[in-house]
Amino acid sequence: MKRSLALLPFGVALAFASTSLLATGNAENGKAKAAACFACHGTDGNSIDPQYPRLAGQYNLYLQQVLHEYKDGGRDNAIMKGMVATLSDQDIEDVATYFSSLPTKLDTLKGHISGE
Question: Cα-flanking dihedrals φ and ψ of residue 99, to 5°?
């Protein structure tokens, strides 16, 4: 018991350190690389059309995962597959860092779900 309590501060420090280590993208580069995204998702990542997700403020690693899934076929969307086809892993990290760094305007899902 004493040993596990002694390791607790180390675990907490590691958890906080790992979140910054995982965010390796460059938001400035990501904004330049995301120019094609702006038509649907908005320059500020807050699409006004409910058929396009709002990307601003989403978790960085979630955005990276989704972009990789579109690229490798894990998610099936012809438009997104074409958009991410030429993105490198670094491009994906940069784009995800850009959109995750933006403030979201999504305070409720009302009017932001397709079919409403």
Answer: -65, -35
CB of 88 closer than 8 Å to CB of 81:
no
Nearest CA to 33 out of 80, 71, 83, 69 is that of 83
Rounded Cα–Cα distance for residues 50 and 40 (Å): 10
pLDDT greater than 90 at residue 109: no
Per residue in 48-89, pLDDT tens? 898 999 999 999 999 999 999 999 999 999 999 999 999 999
Domain map (residue ranges) of the chain? 25-101
Domain 25-101: CATH architecture, name and number where available: Orthogonal Bundle (1.10)
